[in-house]
Structure formats: C-alpha cells, structure tokens
Amino acid sequence: MKKIVLVKCKMISEQNLCPGDAKCFVALSRKEGEFARYQEEGAQIVGIVDCGGCEGNKNRVICSLFLLKLQLNALKEKVDAVHVGTCIMKFCKRKDDLIAAIKEKAGVEVVEGTHPYAPPSIFGD
User: Fold this and answer.
1) How crowded is residue 49: how many other Cβ atoms within 10 Å of its Cβ?
2) Of 60, 31, 64, 32, whose CA–CA distance to 47 is shortest?
3) Can you give the pTM of this predicted structure?
4) Which of 15, 48, 79, 86 is the most buried (most CB within 10 A)?
C-alpha cells in the first residue's frame, strides 16, 4: 500500500470552500482522478499540509513537509508520493513555483492533482 501526502490550498481550506477535504478523500476511496494509479496496490493518506498561503513563498510548503516528515518518522511511516491538490492545480497563480520546489526537495514522486470533481462551468450542466 502506497502512503501519500496531500498539499492543499491554504486559502480554500481556511475559507471552508472545500469542507473536510472531502473531494480528495472520496476520490482516493473510489480510486478516481490522479488516485486511479493506486487501483491495484491501494493507497492511504498519511498527512495533509497546506501550501503556506498566497502571501507566502515556496519555503513554507517545504518547511511544512519537513515537519510532517519528522512526525511521520516518529510513527515509523514512510511517504511514497506527494499529491498537489486539484485546488492548487486549478486555481493557484504560484503553482509552478510550488511544484518545482516540492519536486526538488521531496525525494519521492510528486503527482500534480488529486480529484476530478472540479465543475467545468458554473451554470452549465
């Protein structure tokens, strides 16, 4: 079973625009979106960090991931992949910098995206 970490948008999370990270959890459970890659072997979320905020810089997410690693080490958990949330992939102006920084430091696979549930339009079907 793969152990994964999610990186989510701080602003969307703090403003409760994605309550409880439900879309990511449901997509993982259903093995949909970028979680389809775990269809055979399974996966579980072992941690979630936020991006550090719109006013922040890429170092915040790196520090958060490092602190999460310390916690997971104490629990004898190893991370196999970091998923950058759909919230960041669809809406963040700084996503390229964030992803580059995560890829440079993570030491594991970095997957761009999580769930496929973002609506294509506001009022369309």
Assistant:
1) 20
2) 64
3) 0.93
4) 86
